[in-house]
Amino acid sequence: MSTTLTGTPAARTARPRMLRGLTWLVLRQHRATLGFVLALVVLGSLWIVYQRAQLNDLLDAAGWPAKAVPQPVVGEGYRNLTTLLGLLPGVLAVFFGAPLIAADQEQGTALLVTTQSVTRRRWIVAKVGWCLLVALVAGSVLSAVFTWWWRPHHSVLPDIWMDTSVFDTTGPVLPAFALFLTAAGITIGVLLRRVLASMVVTFVFCVAAQVAWGMLRVHLGSPRTITYPLEAPLPARLDGAYEVDRWVADADGQLYGWGSCAEVTQKATDACIKEKGIVDNVFQYLEYDQMTAMQWTGSGILLAGTAALTAFALWWASRRPL
Fold first, then answer.
1. C-alpha span between 148 and 170 (Å, rounded)
2. Residues 28-32, mean pLDDT to the nearest whole number
Protein backbone atom coordinates (compact mmCIF):
# COMPACT_ATOMS: atom_id res chain seq x y z
CA MET A 1 0.00 0.00 0.00
CA SER A 2 1.45 3.39 -0.97
CA THR A 3 1.82 6.37 1.31
CA THR A 4 0.04 9.57 0.32
CA LEU A 5 0.91 13.10 1.28
CA THR A 6 -2.52 14.52 1.92
CA GLY A 7 -3.76 12.15 4.64
CA THR A 8 -7.42 11.42 5.34
CA PRO A 9 -10.24 13.85 4.41
CA ALA A 10 -10.89 14.45 8.11
CA ALA A 11 -7.26 15.38 8.67
CA ARG A 12 -7.30 17.70 5.69
CA THR A 13 -10.37 19.45 7.07
CA ALA A 14 -8.89 19.80 10.56
CA ARG A 15 -5.69 21.46 9.41
CA PRO A 16 -5.54 25.07 8.17
CA ARG A 17 -5.40 25.42 4.41
CA MET A 18 -1.74 26.57 4.45
CA LEU A 19 -0.68 23.48 6.41
CA ARG A 20 -2.08 20.80 4.14
CA GLY A 21 -0.41 18.34 1.84
CA LEU A 22 3.23 18.94 1.05
CA THR A 23 3.52 21.95 3.38
CA TRP A 24 2.28 19.90 6.29
CA LEU A 25 4.72 17.09 5.41
CA VAL A 26 7.71 19.46 5.30
CA LEU A 27 6.81 21.10 8.61
CA ARG A 28 6.18 17.77 10.30
CA GLN A 29 9.43 16.31 8.99
CA HIS A 30 11.43 19.25 10.38
CA ARG A 31 9.32 19.97 13.47
CA ALA A 32 12.25 19.41 15.85
CA THR A 33 14.46 21.90 14.03
CA LEU A 34 11.62 24.39 13.70
CA GLY A 35 10.89 24.07 17.41
CA PHE A 36 14.55 24.70 18.23
CA VAL A 37 14.71 27.80 16.01
CA LEU A 38 11.44 29.12 17.44
CA ALA A 39 12.71 28.63 21.00
CA LEU A 40 15.98 30.34 20.06
CA VAL A 41 14.14 33.36 18.67
CA VAL A 42 11.75 33.68 21.62
CA LEU A 43 14.41 33.21 24.30
CA GLY A 44 16.88 35.45 22.47
CA SER A 45 14.29 38.22 22.14
CA LEU A 46 13.36 37.98 25.83
CA TRP A 47 17.04 38.09 26.76
CA ILE A 48 17.54 41.26 24.72
CA VAL A 49 14.48 42.90 26.29
CA TYR A 50 15.78 42.01 29.76
CA GLN A 51 19.28 43.33 29.01
CA ARG A 52 17.83 46.57 27.63
CA ALA A 53 15.72 47.09 30.73
CA GLN A 54 18.77 46.57 32.94
CA LEU A 55 20.78 49.06 30.89
CA ASN A 56 18.00 51.65 31.07
CA ASP A 57 17.85 51.33 34.86
CA LEU A 58 21.62 51.77 35.10
CA LEU A 59 21.64 54.81 32.82
CA ASP A 60 18.71 56.42 34.62
CA ALA A 61 20.49 55.98 37.94
CA ALA A 62 23.63 57.60 36.48
CA GLY A 63 21.67 60.56 35.10
CA TRP A 64 22.39 59.78 31.44
CA PRO A 65 22.33 61.50 28.96
CA ALA A 66 22.80 64.68 31.01
CA LYS A 67 25.82 63.09 32.68
CA ALA A 68 28.49 60.90 31.14
CA VAL A 69 28.65 57.29 32.30
CA PRO A 70 31.83 55.24 32.81
CA GLN A 71 32.68 52.51 30.31
CA PRO A 72 31.76 49.75 30.10
CA VAL A 73 28.13 49.95 31.17
CA VAL A 74 27.30 46.36 30.21
CA GLY A 75 28.72 43.07 31.39
CA GLU A 76 29.28 39.60 29.98
CA GLY A 77 25.59 39.28 29.06
CA TYR A 78 25.98 41.80 26.25
CA ARG A 79 29.17 40.18 24.96
CA ASN A 80 27.63 36.71 25.01
CA LEU A 81 24.53 38.01 23.25
CA THR A 82 26.41 39.62 20.37
CA THR A 83 28.53 36.48 19.99
CA LEU A 84 25.45 34.25 19.74
CA LEU A 85 23.77 36.61 17.27
CA GLY A 86 26.89 36.52 15.13
CA LEU A 87 26.84 32.71 15.18
CA LEU A 88 23.15 32.44 14.21
CA PRO A 89 23.61 32.46 10.39
CA GLY A 90 26.28 29.76 10.60
CA VAL A 91 24.20 27.62 12.95
CA LEU A 92 21.22 27.79 10.59
CA ALA A 93 23.45 26.93 7.62
CA VAL A 94 25.19 23.95 9.24
CA PHE A 95 22.31 22.37 11.17
CA PHE A 96 19.32 23.37 9.03
CA GLY A 97 20.47 24.16 5.50
CA ALA A 98 23.12 21.50 4.90
CA PRO A 99 21.01 18.46 5.95
CA LEU A 100 17.78 19.74 4.35
CA ILE A 101 18.06 17.88 1.03
CA ALA A 102 21.18 15.82 1.78
CA ALA A 103 19.42 13.87 4.56
CA ASP A 104 16.54 12.95 2.28
CA GLN A 105 18.94 11.88 -0.44
CA GLU A 106 21.09 9.85 1.95
CA GLN A 107 18.15 8.14 3.67
CA GLY A 108 16.08 7.57 0.54
CA THR A 109 13.21 9.80 1.68
CA ALA A 110 13.59 11.90 -1.45
CA LEU A 111 12.93 8.93 -3.69
CA LEU A 112 9.87 7.94 -1.64
CA VAL A 113 8.34 11.41 -1.67
CA THR A 114 8.78 11.93 -5.39
CA THR A 115 6.95 8.67 -6.18
CA GLN A 116 3.81 10.16 -4.63
CA SER A 117 1.40 12.74 -5.99
CA VAL A 118 3.90 15.63 -6.15
CA THR A 119 6.63 16.38 -8.63
CA ARG A 120 10.28 16.52 -7.68
CA ARG A 121 10.46 20.25 -8.39
CA ARG A 122 7.45 21.01 -6.20
CA TRP A 123 8.91 19.01 -3.33
CA ILE A 124 12.29 20.75 -3.59
CA VAL A 125 10.71 24.21 -3.82
CA ALA A 126 8.59 23.51 -0.72
CA LYS A 127 11.58 22.31 1.30
CA VAL A 128 13.88 25.13 0.27
CA GLY A 129 11.17 27.78 0.54
CA TRP A 130 10.25 26.88 4.11
CA CYS A 131 13.88 26.61 5.15
CA LEU A 132 14.72 30.07 3.81
CA LEU A 133 11.53 31.50 5.31
CA VAL A 134 12.51 30.20 8.74
CA ALA A 135 16.03 31.68 8.36
CA LEU A 136 14.54 35.02 7.26
CA VAL A 137 12.08 35.22 10.15
CA ALA A 138 14.64 34.18 12.77
CA GLY A 139 17.24 36.66 11.55
CA SER A 140 14.72 39.49 11.09
CA VAL A 141 13.12 39.18 14.52
CA LEU A 142 16.39 38.96 16.45
CA SER A 143 17.96 41.74 14.40
CA ALA A 144 14.94 44.02 14.91
CA VAL A 145 14.92 43.49 18.68
CA PHE A 146 18.69 43.95 19.03
CA THR A 147 18.62 47.08 16.83
CA TRP A 148 15.84 48.43 19.07
CA TRP A 149 18.25 48.05 21.99
CA TRP A 150 21.50 49.16 20.35
CA ARG A 151 20.67 52.28 18.31
CA PRO A 152 19.44 54.58 21.12
CA HIS A 153 22.33 53.52 23.36
CA HIS A 154 25.17 53.10 20.86
CA SER A 155 27.19 55.95 22.37
CA VAL A 156 27.50 54.17 25.74
CA LEU A 157 27.94 50.60 24.50
CA PRO A 158 31.47 49.21 24.08
CA ASP A 159 31.37 48.29 20.37
CA ILE A 160 31.50 50.87 17.60
CA TRP A 161 29.12 50.61 14.69
CA MET A 162 31.66 49.04 12.29
CA ASP A 163 32.49 46.15 14.63
CA THR A 164 31.31 42.74 13.50
CA SER A 165 29.28 42.40 16.70
CA VAL A 166 27.16 45.41 15.68
CA PHE A 167 27.27 45.87 11.90
CA ASP A 168 26.43 42.21 11.21
CA THR A 169 23.74 41.85 13.88
CA THR A 170 21.63 44.99 13.36
CA GLY A 171 19.46 46.23 10.52
CA PRO A 172 19.09 44.05 7.41
CA VAL A 173 22.50 42.38 7.57
CA LEU A 174 21.67 39.57 10.03
CA PRO A 175 18.66 38.22 8.07
CA ALA A 176 20.50 38.67 4.76
CA PHE A 177 23.52 36.78 6.07
CA ALA A 178 21.27 34.07 7.50
CA LEU A 179 19.63 33.63 4.10
CA PHE A 180 22.94 33.59 2.23
CA LEU A 181 24.67 31.03 4.45
CA THR A 182 21.55 28.85 4.68
CA ALA A 183 21.26 28.87 0.89
CA ALA A 184 24.95 27.94 0.70
CA GLY A 185 24.35 25.06 3.12
CA ILE A 186 21.42 23.79 1.02
CA THR A 187 23.50 24.00 -2.15
CA ILE A 188 26.43 22.15 -0.59
CA GLY A 189 24.04 19.46 0.68
CA VAL A 190 22.52 19.04 -2.76
CA LEU A 191 25.97 18.63 -4.32
CA LEU A 192 27.52 16.29 -1.72
CA ARG A 193 24.38 14.24 -0.90
CA ARG A 194 25.81 13.18 2.49
CA VAL A 195 24.78 14.85 5.74
CA LEU A 196 28.05 14.78 7.69
CA ALA A 197 30.20 15.81 4.74
CA SER A 198 27.75 18.59 3.89
CA MET A 199 27.78 19.94 7.44
CA VAL A 200 31.58 19.95 7.62
CA VAL A 201 32.00 21.67 4.26
CA THR A 202 29.27 24.16 5.14
CA PHE A 203 31.06 25.00 8.38
CA VAL A 204 34.30 25.67 6.49
CA PHE A 205 32.39 27.76 3.95
CA CYS A 206 30.79 29.82 6.74
CA VAL A 207 34.20 30.60 8.26
CA ALA A 208 35.59 31.60 4.85
CA ALA A 209 32.50 33.70 4.11
CA GLN A 210 32.84 35.55 7.42
CA VAL A 211 36.49 36.34 6.67
CA ALA A 212 35.65 37.55 3.15
CA TRP A 213 32.75 39.63 4.47
CA GLY A 214 35.03 41.26 7.02
CA MET A 215 37.34 42.33 4.20
CA LEU A 216 34.42 43.57 2.06
CA ARG A 217 32.62 45.51 4.82
CA VAL A 218 34.92 48.54 4.76
CA HIS A 219 34.40 48.90 0.99
CA LEU A 220 30.60 49.20 1.26
CA GLY A 221 30.81 52.95 1.86
CA SER A 222 32.75 55.88 0.40
CA PRO A 223 35.45 57.07 2.87
CA ARG A 224 35.51 60.72 3.87
CA THR A 225 38.67 62.74 4.50
CA ILE A 226 39.43 65.49 6.97
CA THR A 227 42.63 67.53 7.35
CA TYR A 228 43.66 69.19 10.62
CA PRO A 229 46.90 70.71 12.03
CA LEU A 230 49.70 68.34 12.92
CA GLU A 231 49.84 69.19 16.63
CA ALA A 232 46.05 69.46 17.08
CA PRO A 233 44.06 66.69 18.81
CA LEU A 234 41.68 64.51 16.83
CA PRO A 235 38.51 66.55 16.14
CA ALA A 236 35.59 65.65 18.41
CA ARG A 237 33.35 64.84 15.44
CA LEU A 238 35.53 61.79 14.74
CA ASP A 239 34.93 60.17 18.12
CA GLY A 240 32.49 57.63 16.64
CA ALA A 241 34.18 57.35 13.26
CA TYR A 242 35.87 54.26 11.87
CA GLU A 243 39.42 54.91 10.74
CA VAL A 244 40.17 53.69 7.21
CA ASP A 245 43.64 55.24 6.85
CA ARG A 246 45.65 58.26 7.91
CA TRP A 247 48.63 60.21 6.62
CA VAL A 248 50.60 63.38 7.24
CA ALA A 249 50.87 66.10 4.60
CA ASP A 250 52.97 69.12 3.74
CA ALA A 251 51.65 72.59 2.92
CA ASP A 252 51.23 71.61 -0.76
CA GLY A 253 49.05 68.63 0.15
CA GLN A 254 51.63 65.93 -0.63
CA LEU A 255 50.89 62.88 1.50
CA TYR A 256 53.39 60.86 3.53
CA GLY A 257 52.81 57.67 5.46
CA TRP A 258 51.77 58.09 9.08
CA GLY A 259 55.10 56.72 10.30
CA SER A 260 57.29 58.59 7.84
CA CYS A 261 58.98 60.58 10.60
CA ALA A 262 58.79 58.03 13.38
CA GLU A 263 62.45 58.38 14.32
CA VAL A 264 64.22 57.01 17.38
CA THR A 265 64.54 60.38 19.11
CA GLN A 266 62.21 63.37 19.28
CA LYS A 267 64.99 65.56 17.88
CA ALA A 268 65.30 63.35 14.80
CA THR A 269 61.53 63.30 14.39
CA ASP A 270 61.32 67.10 14.52
CA ALA A 271 64.14 67.36 11.98
CA CYS A 272 62.33 64.96 9.63
CA ILE A 273 59.09 66.93 9.94
CA LYS A 274 60.90 70.18 9.22
CA GLU A 275 62.79 68.73 6.27
CA LYS A 276 59.62 67.44 4.60
CA GLY A 277 57.55 70.45 5.55
CA ILE A 278 54.86 68.37 7.23
CA VAL A 279 52.14 70.55 8.74
CA ASP A 280 48.88 68.55 8.69
CA ASN A 281 47.27 65.28 9.66
CA VAL A 282 45.04 63.71 7.01
CA PHE A 283 42.42 61.30 8.36
CA GLN A 284 40.28 59.03 6.16
CA TYR A 285 37.21 57.60 7.85
CA LEU A 286 33.69 56.21 7.66
CA GLU A 287 31.05 57.95 9.77
CA TYR A 288 28.11 56.58 11.72
CA ASP A 289 25.55 58.23 9.44
CA GLN A 290 26.80 55.98 6.60
CA MET A 291 25.93 52.81 8.49
CA THR A 292 22.39 52.30 7.17
CA ALA A 293 23.34 52.77 3.52
CA MET A 294 26.33 50.46 3.92
CA GLN A 295 24.18 47.79 5.56
CA TRP A 296 21.60 47.86 2.78
CA THR A 297 24.32 47.76 0.13
CA GLY A 298 25.90 44.74 1.76
CA SER A 299 22.52 43.08 2.24
CA GLY A 300 21.78 43.55 -1.45
CA ILE A 301 25.00 41.70 -2.32
CA LEU A 302 24.13 38.88 0.10
CA LEU A 303 20.58 38.59 -1.24
CA ALA A 304 21.88 38.42 -4.81
CA GLY A 305 24.18 35.59 -3.70
CA THR A 306 21.23 33.89 -1.99
CA ALA A 307 19.16 34.07 -5.17
CA ALA A 308 22.00 32.66 -7.28
CA LEU A 309 22.71 29.79 -4.87
CA THR A 310 19.03 28.92 -4.50
CA ALA A 311 18.45 28.93 -8.25
CA PHE A 312 21.46 26.68 -8.77
CA ALA A 313 20.39 24.27 -6.02
CA LEU A 314 16.86 23.99 -7.43
CA TRP A 315 18.18 23.49 -10.96
CA TRP A 316 20.74 20.88 -9.90
CA ALA A 317 18.41 18.92 -7.61
CA SER A 318 15.59 18.84 -10.13
CA ARG A 319 17.79 17.39 -12.88
CA ARG A 320 20.12 14.99 -11.09
CA PRO A 321 19.16 11.52 -9.83
CA LEU A 322 17.92 11.48 -6.26
1. 9
2. 77
Residue range 252-279: average pLDDT? 82
pLDDT band at residue 279, thresholds of 50, 70 and 90?
A: confident
- pLDDT, one tens digit per residue, over 281-311 is 899 999 999 999 999 999 999 999 999 999 9
Residues 122 and 184 in one domain: yes
| Neighbour tally for 285: CB within 10 Å | 19
List 249's β-bridge partners, or say none: 255, 280
pTM of the model: 0.84
- The answer, yes or no, to whether residue 4 has pLDDT greater than 50, is no
Cα torsion 299, 301, 303, 306 to 10°: value is -140
| Whether residues 16 and 96 fall in one domain | yes
Preceding amide of 89 cis, omega within 30: no
SS3 226: strand
Same domain, 45 and 126: yes
Predicted confidence (pLDDT) at residue 5 exceeds the cutoff of 50: no
What's the structural domain count of the chain? 2
DSSP state letter for 169: T
Closest among 124, 131, 122 to 179, alpha carbons compared: 131
What order do you get walking across the sheet with 224-229 strand by strand?
224-229, 278-286, 242-250, 255-257
Domain residues for the domain of 91 are 9-221+290-319
Phi and psi dihedrals of 312, rounded to 5?
-65, -45
- Bridge partners, residue 165, by sequence: none
